Batch of 2 targets.
Target 1
Amino acid sequence: MENKDDKKKAVYKNPRSLADIQRSIFSNTGLQKKDYKGRTIEDEEEWQIKGGVAKYPKVHQSKLDRKKSSEQRDLALIPTPPKLGVSQVKNIDTLGYMLQRENWKREKAGKTKTAEFEFDFKDYAKMRGRTETELARGGKFLDELKKDLFTGAYTTYRLDRVEIDGKLYTAHGLPNIYILLEPDNHKGNWKVIYNEPYKNYYINGKQYYPVLLQAIQDKNTDDRKGYLYFFFKIVMSYASTKPGFARQLKVITLLDKITISDGTKARPREAFKVLCECIYYTADNYKAIKEVRFFNNWKCEKVKIINDLEKFKKWDYNDFTKEVLTPLGLTDFRDALISFNAPPTEATEGTEETGQTGQDIITL
């Protein structure tokens, strides 16, 4: 029988402000060759990211090109980029969970919270979903995990605008997320020391939402399927804001938040397929969704309720149009509003948190 205390401990309290910054910086696929901007006068490699740039110091490029000689690195026209995809989000979440675990121990011993901790790399790899058998066998994945750690330590960001807790800010000089201390000769523990403002998010932050360790460890969402992890985190974020996920989002806004490509967003059928995959993945694996609601507008005058979530496993866009969009008076699902689990509780036209009673309700 599963121990309730163990289940409770397998939940990471994700600081909401940190999660907002993650969505502002990272994407599903990470950086591509086209994102490279060149080398700065400060001898940093500069990469284009959403709403700003990321800089990685050339002196630490060997940490990303672990198998290349210094001569090969110097000859490369475009250097290996820092890992700014979903694997970096999971790296930050994993380290945050490990810090949380350290602070549980400290609080139990009557000590104050800390923003630094030591860890065994093998333990970190297990937190990222690797088994004892895989660790004994070794492989390229070990280098990739280390690249995640080095990326978080050495990459700095300059963002034009960042959304935190639903408000837009101009961000100046966001530093490296943490200082990483690597043991000599690959023996002994590693150490992480958080920089500001991230340190403050963990020590003094008041707003958190739960992220299951099980989701962090799902290797199937580490790369091309990263949007599944982003979607799961959004569901958990909104579910903790109001009971039963009472908040509505415009579908196109949700697609933006899970960072799928502009090409996919531009094609309704493909975007719908991705959304269906996200909903079914989150409902089937984590039981975090019990029903889905689509609304026609911000007044929520018409609503379609889907209780049979198996539909999202194989729903065809033409059938969805007939069963949901047409009754709502819509032709493009990206124009609909979407909510999960609970009915609307409050009407506020023109915002993303809305609802209204006395609706035209149809249940599927």
Note: The two ends are 35 Å apart (CA to CA).
Target 2
Amino acid sequence: MKQVKNQEFWFSIVLLLITIIFSGFAYVFWSELLFFVGPFLLIHWLGLIGTVFVGSFIPIYYVLKRKRLQNRKNLLRIHVFGNLIAFLLISIHFAQNVGRLANYYSKIGDGIVLFLVLTTFVVTGITERFQMVKKSVKYIRFVHRYAIVIFYFIIIIHTLQGFNIL
């Protein structure tokens, strides 16, 4: 198995474990993250930073990997680890909101869908990147690449609802 010797694979796993730990902390101690940094709560900044990275770097990566073939390996690393760190930030944001709104799950419906789409990106991305499933790689690639349309659509709705526009 190639993954056992691959440092990038293990670093990805460590980032996912850190994501689980920090998200658990944010869920349990949600009130500790309720302080303002400028006009927004810290937790909203984390979600915003992660979402802006994912939303902007995916099309940048798509274009640059075809234009800059000599930098393809470095671009892939930025894509994988940048999105994993963005997933960490978004997971903390999501866990804190779920913990805070435990009695009001109906208010975070689009956030749950958005988080599921993002989790789908991460799972299919790691599966594709580290070639974990050989037989169904084209289906995994299809889900990974075309779920971005759903991501952009839901993030627009989620943001508009967050600013009380919808």
Note: Residues 72-100 form the longest helix (29 residues).
